[in-house]
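Contributing new records

If you add data, match the layout below exactly. Sequence lines come first and carry their own label; structure lines follow with theirs. Keep one chain per record. Anything else will be rejected by the validation script.
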Amino acid sequence: MEHFIVSARKYRPQTFKDVVGQQAITNTLLNAIENNHLAQALLFTGPRGVGKTTCARILAKMINSDGNETGDEDFAFNIFELDAASNNSVDDIRSLTDQVRIPPQVGKYKVYIIDEVHMLSQAAFNAFLKTLEEPPKHCIFILATTEKHKIIPTILSRCQIFDFKRITVKDAKSYLKYIAEEQGVIADDDALHIIAQKADGAMRDALSIFDRVVSFSGKNLTRQAVTENLNVLDYETYFTSTDFILENKIPELLLQFDNTLSKGFDGHHYIAGLASHFRDLLVSKTPETIELLEVGEQTKKKYLNQSKKASQEFLLNGINLANDCDLKYKTSKNQRLLVELCLMQLASITFDGEKKKNSKYYIIPASYFKNKGITPIAVEIPQQKTEKEIKVDIQSEKNKEKYTDVSTSKHIETLQVKEPPKIVLKQDNKRTSGLSLSSIRAKKEHQIRQMDVVIDQEDLPKEDFTEKELIKTWNAFIKILQDDGKHNLASILSIDTPKVIGTDIHLEFPNATNKVEVERQQYDLLAYIRKSLNNYDISLSITVNEVMEKQYAYTSKEKFEKLKDKNPSLDILRKTFDLDI
């Protein structure tokens, strides 16, 4: 078996012309070499896999090149690479500074490439400062890092900084196409585009993914093979979902989402991709912005065709709904239901619009009946009366209410007016209490009905709140109770600090008596908290912990026993003076 060389090493650029997507930096370095303006300390910074180390090696080779050497000359004696991740101590830097003093044996310059320079320790940085500021004439330092913010400012001020950018999808796809032709691989344009997108701006990652997919599918690289191997959602999934949404096919849409989940994809990834798909459709509607689509030519045509079916209003509403679902996904307890509700809302956008448009004479849209082969019955809409007709009707009603002279006792119209029934109060010598059981029961039932009405109203606000805000509202309600003279209930509510789990307020009391007392007054408590926090999903959960009962003393005897436990001398004092409790 022959030794396999990965594409990232096999096709590593040997000249600045081969470097992908960094033309500004490579041109700057070429001009600096030609004009002899090259700094002695360079810092290459940027994301992983964008060509920092490659450019450093090419630069180190070009510095010593005078045009007379052979093609395979790499000046290995003059180029020193140091991995700062494993050589980050002060001793390693001191060893390097000792080597710097020795001039090169071949060529003009000794080049030191220090990779991952941000891994150097603080002491190593300080030991390197003097050498970096005033290096020998024959020495050039090239530092490379992915995290520039971790390098101390004194090092940054001594270097000429080059910021490498992420490789664009277009550039990565072009280079992958070149490599595929070199290896004799037949690759679909969409397949290479998906690989370039998956690499997320890193050319080395793109080449690694390319090798992996080629190992999976062989010499024929198709879009289906790439999506299956990389476990990414295909464009077709979102095109099909959008078709179902536009056609109001909710059952088919939910089944497709279930099929997507069964393949191992995450619902969060699905809904975020759907929002991006709507964005791409919105971009496709305007010729000026169509260049913002980072897709292949075949896929671009599909976007153009589907964008004609979807209105701009639908796409904007769809993006808002999908983005809202994306934001709520992580905090949701039932994430699948959240996505399914979002999909049903999306599929109802165009349905509602059609219903409003066609329901001028029919309660149910006429198109529904036509599809079922039923002839709809028109609903007669009464004509609205003019202001003059309304005034005439009011005047006629007033005339009907007039009566004739009292002496004749006859009406103009035979209108029978019934007198309201008289209320007769029976006098009884027995005294009754205003707080009867029936009145208390009726009041409680009325409060329960009020709570039910509030709970059934789905349109009431359900804003998020913090535990700190709840405690503040809780203490405000206790203050109201104290001002009203309800000290018993106020003291019970002060026993435990409320804890929030979701929208449930959890309380713990030492005995069942406290629980019953709070439950009896919970309607006023919940009404105040819900209104103050603007969330009508809040509920109350009370538990009894009898162990806590030992911590509270209610009667005088219990208080004395509690004090006696702390100071036994109190019992001696009571017995000596024969004191009562």
